[in-house]
Specification:
CATH class of chain A: Mainly Beta
Distance between the termini of chain B: 53 Å
Number of helices of chain A: 1
Number of helices of chain B: 10
Distance between the termini of chain A: 62 Å
Shape of chain A: globular
Strand order of the largest sheet of chain B: 2-3
Order of helices and strands of chain A: HEEEEEEEEE
CATH architecture of chain A: Sandwich
Low-confidence stretches of chain A: none
Mean pLDDT of chain B: 82
Structural class of chain A: alpha+beta
Mean pLDDT of chain A: 85
Radius of gyration of chain A: 18 Å
Oligomer: heterodimer
Helix content of chain B: 55-70%
Chain lengths: 146, 295
Amino acid sequence: MKSIYKVLLLSSIFILTINSVQAQCNQYAKRNCMPELNPFTHNGQLNIVQMSPGEEAELEIPFYSGMSYKLLVCAQEVIGKAQFQVYDSKNKIVYDNKDHDFAKSWEFEVSSTQKMKIVVIIPQGPKASNGISKVGCAAVLVGFKQ
Amino acid sequence: MKLSFKLNLIIAVAVSSLLFSCKGNSKSDTDEVDPTAVENQSKAAKVFYAIPSPSELSAIIKATGANFNKSILNPPANQSKYTSIIQMSMNLGVYGADLSYTSTFDQTQEAMAYMGVCKKLADGLGITGAINENTVKRMEKNLNNKDSLLSIISDTYLETDVYLKNNDRAGVSALVVAGGWIEGLYISTSIAEQNAKNEAIIKRIAEQKLILENLIGLLESNEADENIPEIMTDLKALKGVFDNIKMTEVPEAEVKTDTVNKKTVIGSNGELSLSPEQLKDISTRITAIRNKIVN
């Protein structure tokens, strides 16, 4: 009986803490990243992930021809500056913010509607003194205008 | 006695965690995420799928020269029919797309009506705060300012998405997205049926092949939600038709950057085009899927 309660208790803590982390990431993106999309209209979707130095995340998103887009990638200071690379539909790299002083945003248009892949990389950094990898939120936001 | 203590402890942990979660608004810019929460996080590659918003598709539809057609939309009066989670989720997406369409075509009274039914469905799903009285007042104040209207609509999408994800209901969020995409494609095919000479809209329908691939990816990543498999079956059958659409080959795309305006244009990697038979097939299938949702 005791072990059932232990499992219940630990599960509750785990699930609720994960949810609270997700909520923190969402709040971070809304308050710290979204304003930087201006004057583009945000597409209404938050693409957020918790990342540690050395980790990568990929986002696939189609972009319409005839629109102007602003792609914004921001990460909490605790995990350092995020690198992001954009690949076209033929998997050719078309932008790497490492070549642009780790700029957080990039404005572009596509001549034909195509799906692009955005790879977010958190560069490897020194570990925290307690040996646990630092973890922070990274967000990819898209704004559009005609 | 021990039992009630343990239950109290669980409740206390749950309440304090929820309170902690709600404190998000007062956090500083450089807050760290609690590392203990993610120690077990997988190092596997994280792949996400996103799809363009209904507002983008509405703008694209308008740019094709199509006229506004109220009769193809889901009437607001249907809202009272939707009582299950899947009905409310998918029709929130459908009405959200209708809201974007009416706003983009400056049909402000219709847009207000659609915002009203979106609010009712959001309330029904327990999405508190995403669409509230303040949202409706902001809309009323900005009826003549399309950019502000679209921004308000974008905010409501965002608040809905954030609320659902914060509350571990990403499956419902994916259903809302699916409903919005289905309505957008239904509107597009309805316009194409009425005006076969509108080649621009037909091209935009062909391009939905790319969006559908991502939508299926998004739904698959939320397949644990009990409501997802039913819609997946229909969408995968539709994908079978889109899979036959071929892309014209073009030379390697160029990337041109205007350094003065800091804008880059990525060249074409090919165009998708539809035959009349394929258009008919897509139109028939999306109408059937949409009818299942709204009727």
